[in-house]
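Slide 14.
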Amino acid sequence: MRKAWLGLFLTAVAACGPFHEDYSVLVVTEPPAAEVWKGNFYLGRTPYALTATATEEEDEAGQLHFPALILRREGYRDRALELELPTGEGHQWECLVELEPGEGEEND
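Slide 15: predicted structure.
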């Protein structure tokens, strides 16, 4: 009974396909504590760790595309952020984004 279960497990693992790497980007803003949005979904505040797994197509192309984000902070202009990073050249990145003051706003 135990041998049959092990064989089933090995067959299931073999059918899963190739392993794809996870990549992480730490999004940091100046000033800090900007809101991070993906479409209409609030994700958190900066610094914010964003993780994605490369698809087979991205692995073959050598480029990983992270989902588009919007960075928001009161008194500053919204900032769109789209990242494409090379695959195979490190798995952890840091992205510093300097937010611009909104019109007529003075910020420290």
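Speaker note: The CA atoms of residues 27 and 95 lie 5 Å apart.
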